[in-house]
Specification:
This protein is mainly beta. The chain has one helix at 2-21, and strands spanning 30-37, 41-48, 53-64, 73-85, 92-107, 110-128, 131-143, 158-171. It is built from one helix and eight strands; from the N terminus they run αββββββββ. The protein has an eight-stranded antiparallel barrel with strand order 1-2-3-4-5-6-7-8. Strand 6 and strand 7 (131-143) form a beta hairpin. The model is unreliable at 15-22 (pLDDT under 50).
C-alpha cells in the first residue's frame, strides 16, 4: 500500500512540474480571446511584450436601438489594455493593469462617444501553453457624450462602477 501512495505522489509531482513548465505567456507569444462582462463582450488580441507585460487591443460591436429619432445602428468599442503579470512562468498568475475603452455610436449621420478608463486586478490560469482563463475585477470610470450616451442611461454624465470580467485566451 505504501508503494502505491509513493507512486501516486511521484506521478502528482511529475504532473505539477510538467504543467508549470508548459505554462504559456512568454515574451513574443501572441494570442486572441474573448472577454465577457456584465455590460458587454469583446474580442481581444494579447501580445506578450515580456514575461510580465502584455498589451491587449480589444474590439467589440453591438447593435443598438437608441430610440427617439435615431434608427437602429451599430456601436463600436475599440480599446487597449496594459497588464503587468506577477509570477512569470507559473500556471496561476495574478496581474494588475489598466484598460482604456471607447464606445462609438454613429446614428443618422451623427457620432457619439463614451470614453472609459478602468484600473483592474485579475488572475490568469494556464491550462496549457495554448489555453488560459482569466477573471478580472475592474473599477470603471466613464465619461459619456454630451448629447447621447451609447452605453449609459444619461448623457453628459460621469459614472464610476465596478465590473467583473471572464476572459478565455488561446495562444500560438
Amino acid at each position: 500500500m505504501k508503494s502505491l501512495y509513493r507512486v501516486l505522489f511521484i506521478l502528482t509531482l511529475a504532473l505539477l512540474c510538467t504543467s508549470i513548465v508548459w505554462a504559456g505567456g512568454t515574451k513574443g507569444q501572441v494570442g486572441f480571446g474573448f472577454k465577457v462582462t456584465d455590460q458587454s463582450s469583446v474580442i481581444h488580441a494579447r501580445f506578450w511584450a515580456s514575461d510580465k507585460l502584455t498589451i491587449e487591443p480589444t474590439f467589440g460591436i453591438a447593435w443598438v436601438d437608441p430610440g427617439s429619432s435615431y434608427s437602429t445602428t451599430k456601436r463600436f468599442a475599440p480599446g487597449i489594455g496594459l497588464l503587468y503579470h506577477f509570477r512569470p512562468g507559473l500556471e496561476l498568475r495574478p496581474y494588475i493593469g489598466m484598460r482604456f475603452e471607447a464606445a462609438i455610436l454613429n446614428a443618422s449621420g451623427e457620432s457619439f462617444a463614451d470614453i472609459g478608463i478602468a484600473p483592474l486586478f485579475g488572475c490568469q490560469y494556464f491550462f496549457s501553453e495554448h489555453f488560459s482563463v482569466s477573471g478580472e475585477y475592474l473599477i470603471t470610470y466613464v465619461k459619456t457624450d454630451k448629447e447621447f450616451s451609447a452605453t449609459m442611461p444619461y448623457s453628459d454624465a460621469t459614472y464610476i462602477n465596478t465590473t467583473q470580467a471572464v476572459l478565455v485566451n488561446f495562444y500560438f
